[in-house]
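Example record

Each entry pairs one chain with its bound ligand, flavin-adenine dinucleotide.
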Amino acid sequence: MNAAEESLRDAAPSIFWLDDPARPPARPPLEGDIEADLVVVGGGFTGLWTALLAREAEPGREVVLLEGDRIASGASGRNGGFVAASLTHGVANGAARFPAELGRLEQLGSENLAAIGDAVRRHGIDASWEETGELAVATRPHEVPGLAGHAEALRRHGRDVVELGRDELQAEIASPTYLGGVWDRDGFALANPARLAWGLAAASERAGVRLHEQTPVTGVVRDGAGVVVSTPAGRVRARRCILATAAFPPLVRPIGRLVVPVYDYVLMTEPLSPAQRDAIGWRRRQGVGDSGNQFHYYRLTADDRILWGGYDAVYHFGGGVGPHHDQRPQTHAVLARNFLATFPQLEGIRFTHRWGGPIDTCSRFCVTFGTALDGRLAYAVGFTGLGVGASRFGARGALDLVDGRDTELTRLELVRSRPLPFPPEPLRFIGITLTRRALAREDRTGRRGLWLRALDRVGMGFDS
Ligand SMILES: Cc1cc2nc3c(=O)[nH]c(=O)nc-3n(C[C@H](O)[C@H](O)[C@H](O)COP(=O)(O)OP(=O)(O)OC[C@H]3O[C@@H](n4cnc5c(N)ncnc54)[C@H](O)[C@@H]3O)c2cc1C
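Structure tokens for the complex follow.
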């Protein structure tokens, strides 16, 4: 058995964040017919923020949230816990897609991140919130020249940025793979995502939201001036509905064209010993992301484990979501190998958990809004792997849209425009497979090939 296989030998096929004695018991499912002003479908960050903000803005409004499984059982309880200020999946993607309003989007994103931190403190949420920022590191020579431009773009939008050469970076975190880096000191916080979601659920209940778990919504249709939402054992008649269902099977047709489920995989180590901790440094506990198309993200937890995820972004033919995709031994093996190449001084460490989760990818990599049923329903989906922070903005946009308000948010190009749809199968699978191969080739060679340049020209992409 090689070192990577050995490190994975005892890793449980379960989600570290949800494997927590603090996980609250499930709220009872909906039984019978009820009425509400607003029904929210989905109990991840987007749905939870929607319900909480709706009640905070209008305490008299009857708000019901229906979650098909458990609170945070989707992407929200499985992610890296990087809470980004960016609403556009990074400043480079924002500059390419929303050049005219990127300045304002960056300000709104910083305000959004600050508001999440305030909510964590105000509601007393024990989510190991750490304002450490994020280090983007280059590990291949052709990635190094891009770092200066990245730093400059962040600075232009008011971020507190430090550029680190190879030696300075080694002094922060010791890895033989690092060639240089950019530390975005105020554009990211880190959190325990499941605890954050559970805390938001508890805060919503205190604010008067009615939560039902294990209540899958099977359909939403018009009903007079409102909608009726069906579930196996009951219905909700409501004036308005917001879908926060991310990568899960779409309840309205446009979501199925705009969003595809992409699986991303994660490993968690055992807690590091003091000697292991000394061997890597990492005293300032930044979140780290490497720079390729196929990137890793990694961070320390409150008890000094390392969460290590990313690299492969797997699309399954037909776009299925479910527990049968949660484990992918070949991807976990690649992750373990890449971990040990990054931190060879940690050889002998064990992973305790391995899991995967569905990302709601859209072709422009950031939240996408829409309405259906003559404006009675709105949705915010398509966060593409960077929705922990942006979900709060998504909730605000969806609320403004479903209430028919003309606000700064509803006037944004980001809110009004749609990404290019994905083609139907089998073209969808073929296109994504070709694109993944082309992205891997660019990572190896540093050259953006014909296929990717053609997609760039039409504004279509694939990311996680
Ligand atoms: C492995 C992984 C790592 C990631 N790392 C990061 C990161 O570090 N930082 C970051 O910003 N983002 C990250 N992301 C993305 C981030 O987790 C998501 O963008 C974010 O959680 C989206 O929240 P959401 O509420 O929109 O979706 P979800 O959390 O997926 O919630 C959707 C919910 O809707 C429910 N639902 C769906 N259909 C129905 C129905 N018909 N009836 C009732 N309920 C329904 C589901 O059960 C689910 O709970 C990562 C994602 C994954 C999978």
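The chain has 15 helices and 18 strands.
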